[in-house]
Design the sequence.
């Protein structure tokens, strides 16, 4: 029934009842009763007019809706009357609900939503398990056998990221590219916008050079014209024929894979190690399970396949297995704990907000005790009053929820800008129906949670008491409820603050970790030589590299420079296999020793500020014509030579031209990160002179080599000057990926820093809300007890006694809250142990310090009303009553 | 308030069948307003049946909703505006049904009572 129909019926019912009463009265008058008397009698005979109307109304089935509207109208009116209260309550809730919604939308998009590919649960990433690497790279030859021999995957693909120099299409530029096998895109269910992807066999070594480009690149370079198919793209000086365009919606980011501008079949890679079964080239696989196949079956299947390969090629494949990790797990596994900890933290904030609003409502409802007592006396049932109060709190929470949604939209945007760039699936984050449902759900839940306690309390009034005492009588029950609220708030705020404190201590400990090098004023970037150098002789490449190096070194502000190949601390890693001379050559590569491999020049120590401990570092004389030398770090020296002096010893390098003499020992560098390096099994480090690189590697380095410089002055200016200098040597040379070492370190700590900041913000919010809560309760108590305090003072209590009494009251709650909070924190912080570094999850210093801070803040919050109590003038207080 | 309302509703239920019958029967003699119906029932029952207004109006509205009676605002003989109820065609059928049900019921009850007397 529509609203207007209802209105009309309502009026009709009124008229009908009125006409009934009039007729009844008239008849009585006609029988001789007096006018007023007759009217009263008619009314009495009729019964409860309102009730009759209500029952009649219910016949039409709009009673409950009608009542809700009535409650709503009344609730809104009551809330509008106390604007201050309403504003504080709604803002508190909006903050709590908004923060929760924002974080939930992140958790929802990152952890809960399925990946945007068909049957995403069938997607598994594939890796080789080998000594030192649980999820190491797969060699191309092994992959081909895996693909051929397995029986549980419907498709299997391979990927590797690479950068290409693009020439012949405007200014030379460095493109991010992915080397992929034929099945990679089809198994993800990606369909080309136009053209096609790679056919079977087109990913083999020696196949024709073809490429797929991204929709963005298609638009930027070709204006999205369909005639792009068959056009040539010059990458690294080679011409690739474009066969298809990949849609812009493809945004996969996993491991080192990034949705890129160009995709090229893996077989096009000119890396000679591609043909080596033992090559560790950073290739990783992606497979789609056959429908119905489980990951256990797939693991068993791959075990069979790899065991068979180990028999067939013991030299390369002995001890090599396959590691299967679900795609989603690999993408989001690392951030799961962080996000869940943050979600829990923000949940605490919401709880505190709810408790605070419940407290406000309690205080307010105490002021309305008379109103409800009167209503109860007039016949309002308890259910009716509870419903009325719940309607009011629902109005509050829904308003808070609505505002919170706005806070969330804004908050998510801000948070995304500050979350680590590595946050997986960040591009998928957004609002959807699940988020809206969540917000609506928690808003309603909040309304019930903070509305129910005050509603139940107030609706059970001692009528006589309340009416008689003029609103002064508030039972001890309500005080206890308030006390419990404050204790709970204190406890929850403490848990949050301790979590934040532990993160701060972890980060502090991390910043104090010596990475083994001086990250300040170090810039790292890549340089690719002109594509015309790709097929040049190693001598010519060396000459060009020397030219580039001396040109860059003479750029103003550059203090030291070193070319760098292979590993870079905290970012890229590469390994060398070797055996110590004097020992027999190991039967297979699997029996050789491993070391992290840095290929650098003579000034590297100066650039990185790494300490030389013994012997010497490289000089310009350690060049292609000189005998091979290496430098090792102290971890290497201890691990392989114990107490012996490694200097003068010789090792055989498997892939770098045989024997080399150890000429120096340098300090260890934390390659694997400030936090995890100590826990890694592979930590020995080996330095090799750049100019002594074997010929194939030297050829590869023309396509892109790393450069590290130590500079003075601002970074931007230096990078720009270097770029100009590079172009002056050859305009086809490209500089790419410039980043300072400090940025690299900061990035490695970003996830922790963000969680620290967010926990800090939540903790601060909780502290503020909890202080507000205790301030409100103590103020209220003081207000209620003005009379009593007046009497006490009249009877001789001193101001200090009153102060002590009020503070004591507050402190009882605070101390209880802190104790409970400490116990809860001791249990809960263990869950975040994996996010901590250098500090135990129950760090006594943090616990004690935070407990103290919270107590002091709470004490300060109590002190303001306590002072007011102290100033009570007994005469005024007594007369007032 | 909740309990009171429940009491009223209980009484409606108790009277439901008969009250509906009485209202329909009363309206057979012509359109009548709520007050008139209550007066008519009272006088025709020899002042024995007093129709509670708390039951009458909900019953009237229920019957109206079921389209057995239709309502219209008119001026009464006392020059007063009142809502007159009037039997509809389906209301007449319903009346017949209710009457036969009632006579069956009263016969049955009478039968039981007489059997007991024997």
Sequence:
């Amino acid at each position: 029934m529509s609203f207007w129909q209802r209105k009309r019926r309502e009026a009709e019912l009124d008229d009908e009842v009125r006409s009934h009463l009039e007729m009844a009265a008239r008849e009585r008058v006609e029988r001789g009763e007096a006018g007023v008397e007759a009217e009263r009698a008619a009314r009495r005979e009729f019964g409860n007019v309102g009730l009759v109307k209500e029952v009649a109304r219910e016949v039409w089935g709009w009673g409950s809706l009608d009542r809700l509207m009535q409650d709503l109208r009344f609730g809104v009116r009551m809330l509008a009357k106390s604007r201050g209260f309403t504003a504080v309550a709604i803002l508190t809730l909006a903050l709590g609900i908004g923060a929760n919604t924002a974080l939930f939308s992140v958790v929802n998009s990152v952890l809960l939503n399925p990946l945007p590919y068909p049957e995403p649960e069938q997607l598994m990433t594939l890796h080789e398990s080998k000594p030192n690497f649980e999820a190491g790279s797969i060699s191309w030859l092994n992959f081909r056998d895996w693909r051929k021999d397995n029986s549980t995957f419907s498709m299997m693909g391979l990927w590797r990221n690479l950068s290409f120099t693009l020439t012949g299409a405007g200014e030379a530029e460095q493109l991010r590219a992915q080397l992929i096998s034929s099945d990679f895109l089809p198994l993800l269910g990606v369909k080309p916008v136009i053209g096609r992807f790679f056919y079977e066999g087109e990913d083999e070594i020696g196949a024709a050079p073809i490429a797929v480009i991204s929709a963005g690149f298609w638009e930027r370079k070709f204006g999205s014209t369909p005639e792009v198919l068959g056009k040539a793209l010059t990458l690294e000086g080679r011409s690739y024929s474009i066969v298809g365009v990949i849609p812009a919606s493809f945004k996969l980011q996993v491991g080192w894979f990034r949705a890129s501008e160009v995709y090229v079949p893996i077989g096009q890679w000119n890396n000679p190690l591609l043909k080596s079964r033992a090559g560790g080239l950073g290739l990783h696989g992606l497979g789609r399970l056959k429908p119905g196949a489980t990951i256990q079956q797939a693991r068993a299947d791959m075990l069979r396949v790899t065991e068979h390969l180990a028999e067939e090629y013991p030299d390369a494949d002995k001890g090599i297995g396959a590691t299967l990790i679900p795609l989603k797990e690999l993408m989001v596994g690392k951030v799961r704990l962080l996000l869940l900890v943050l979600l829990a933290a923000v949940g605490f904030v919401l709880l505190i907000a709810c408790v605070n609003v419940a407290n406000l409502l309690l205080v307010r409802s105490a002021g309305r005790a008379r109103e409800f007592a009167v209503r109860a006396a007039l016949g309002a049932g308890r259910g009716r009053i509870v419903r009325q109060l719940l309607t009011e709190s629902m109005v509050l929470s829904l308003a808070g929820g609505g505002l919170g949604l706005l806070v969330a939209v804004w908050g998510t945007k801000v948070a995304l800008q500050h979350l680590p760039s590595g946050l997986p699936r960040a591009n998928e984050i957004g609002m959807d129906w699940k988020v809206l449902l969540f917000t609506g759900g928690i808003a309603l839940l909040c309304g019930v949670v903070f509305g129910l306690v005050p509603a139940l309390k107030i609706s059970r009034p001692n009528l006589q008491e309340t009416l008689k005492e003029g609103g002064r009588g508030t039972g001890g029950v309500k005080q206890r409820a308030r006390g419990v609220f404050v204790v709970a708030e204190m406890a929850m705020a403490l848990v949050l603050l301790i979590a934040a404190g532990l993160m701060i201590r972890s980060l502090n400990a991390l910043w104090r970790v010596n990475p083994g090098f001086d990250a300040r004023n170090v810039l790292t970037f890549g340089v690719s030589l002109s594509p015309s150098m790709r097929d040049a002789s190693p001598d010519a490449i060396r000459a060009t590299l020397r030219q580039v190096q001396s040109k860059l070194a003479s750029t103003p502000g550059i203090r030291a420079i070193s070319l760098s190949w292979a590993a870079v601390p905290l970012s890229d890693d590469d390994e060398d296999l070797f055996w110590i001379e004097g020992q027999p050559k190991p039967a297979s590569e699997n029996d050789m020793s491993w070391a992290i491999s840095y290929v650098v020049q003579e000034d590297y120590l100066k650039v990185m500020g790494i300490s030389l401990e013994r012997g010497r570092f490289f000089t310009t004389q350690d060049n292609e014509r000189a005998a091979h030398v290496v430098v090792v770090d102290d971890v290497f020296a201890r691990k392989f030579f114990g107490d012996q002096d490694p200097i003068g010893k010789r090792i055989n390098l498997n892939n770098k031209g045989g024997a080399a003499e150890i000429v120096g020992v340098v300090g260890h560098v934390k390659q694997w990160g400030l936090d995890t390096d100590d826990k890694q099994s592979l930590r020995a480090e080996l330095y090799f002179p750049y100019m002594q690189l074997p010929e194939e590697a030297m050829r590869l380095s023309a396509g892109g080599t790393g450069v590290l410089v130590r500079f003075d002055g601002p970074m931007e200016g230096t990078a720009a000057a270097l770029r100009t200098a590079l172009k002056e040597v050859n305009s086809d040379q490209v500089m790419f990926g410039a980043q300072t070492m400090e940025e690299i370190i900061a990035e490695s700590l970003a996830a922790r820093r963000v969680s620290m900041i967010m926990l800090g913000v939540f903790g601060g919010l909780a502290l503020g809300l909890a202080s507000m809560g205790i301030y409100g309760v103590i103020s209220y108590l003081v207000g209620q007890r003005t009379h009593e305090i007046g009497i006490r003072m009249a009877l001789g209590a001193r101001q200090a006694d009153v102060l002590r009494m009020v503070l004591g009251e507050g402190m009882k709650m605070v101390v209880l809250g802190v104790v409970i909070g400490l116990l809860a924190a001791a249990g809960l912080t263990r869950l975040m142990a994996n996010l901590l570094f250098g500090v135990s999850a129950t760090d006594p210093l943090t616990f004690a310090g935070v407990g103290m801070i919270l107590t002091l803040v709470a004490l300060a919050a109590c002190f303001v009303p306590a002072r007011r109590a102290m100033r009570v003038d007994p005469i005024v207080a007594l007369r007032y009553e | 308030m909740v309990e009171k309302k429940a009491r009223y509703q209980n009484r409606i239920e108790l009277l439901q069948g008969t009250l509906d019958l009485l209202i329909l029967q009363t309206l057979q003699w012509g359109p009548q307003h709520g007050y008139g119906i209550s007066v008519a029932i009272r006088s025709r029952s020899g002042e024995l049946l007093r129709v509670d207004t708390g039951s009458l109006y909900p019953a009237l509205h229920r019957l109206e909703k079921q389209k057995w009676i239709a309502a219209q605002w008119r001026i009464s003989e006392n020059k007063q505006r009142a809502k007159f109820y009037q039997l509809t065609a389906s209301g007449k059928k319903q009346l017949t049904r209710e009457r036969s049900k009632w006579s069956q019921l009263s016969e049955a009850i009478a039968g039981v009572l007489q059997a007991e007397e024997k």
